[in-house]
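User: I'll paste a sequence; please echo it back and then give the predicted structure.

Assistant: Echoing your sequence first, then the prediction.
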Amino acid sequence: MSKSLSIANAWPWAVFALTPLFFSTNLIFGRGIIFDVAPFTIAFLRWAGCLIVLLPIIIREKGTVTPFLKHHFSFWLMLGFLGMWICGAIVYMALQTTTAINSALVYTTSPLFVIIIQFLWTKRPIKLQEIIGIVAATIGVCYIVLKGELEQLLALNLNFGDLLILGCAVSWALYLILQKTDAGKDVPSFAMLGLMAAAGTILLAPFAAFELFSGARMPTTQSAWLNIGGIVFFSSLLAFSGTQHTIKHLGPAISSMALYLLPVYGVLLAVIMLDEKYHTYHFIGSVLVLGGVIVATLPKKLK
C-alpha cells in the first residue's frame, strides 16, 4: 500500500520534469524538418492534427464551448493568432536562419515580457527583483544574438531568425496574459486547447494553401511525417497535457517553475539530435537569461 502511495506521489513530479522536455522538442522537430517542409504548412498540420484528436472533447463539452464562441469569438481568434499562428509558423520560419539552441535560450525570456506587458497594460508595479532579472536576461539575449561580439551590433549584423524568436516570445507572453482572463473560465482545459487548435487551423489554412499551390516544400518523405507526428504528439498534446496535470496536482506556482528546465532540455537535445555546437557565448548568455528569469519570476511561496 505504501509503495503504491509513493508511486502516486512521485508521478506528478515525473510529469513536472518531462513536460518542459516535451515543449522543447518543438524546436528540435521544427529545426529538423524546416528545410523539407514550408513553415506555415508545418504549423497547419500541427494544429490540424491536434484538432482531430481533441474534436471529441470539444463536442462533448459543447455546453460550455458554444457560449464561449458566441460571446468571445474575436477573443478566440486573437488567442489562436498569438499562440498558434505567430508562435507556430513564425517560430518555424525563424528556425530557417537560427539554431534550436539560440531559439530555446531566447524564447525563455517570455515570462519577463509578461511582467513588462502587465506594467504597460495594467500599471502593475515592477519589483526590484524583477528589474534586476529583466536587465540580466536582456543582456544575456543580446550576448547570444550577437554571439558575444559587440561589433555585430555596431555593424547591424543581426540574425533575423533570433529577432523573430524574440517576437514570438512577446506573442507568447500576450497569449499567457489573455489566457488568465475570465472569458474562458467555464471551458475545461482540454476543450479550450481543442478550441485553440481549431483557431490555429483556421487562421493557418490560407497560408498553408498558398504554400501548397505556389510549389513550396511539402511533406513527401517518411522522415518529414515522423517529425510532424512528433510535433503533434510530443510538442503539443503531451506538453499541454503535462502542464494541466502539473497545475492540478502541484499547483500553478510550482508548475510555472518547469519553464526553467526548457533551455536545459532544448540545448541538450539540439547538441545530441541536431549536432549543433554549444559555444562559450551560449553558456554566458544562458546563465544571464536563465538567472534573470529565475530572479524575476521565482515565487516566494510554492503553494
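The mean pLDDT is 84. Residues 38-297 form one domain.
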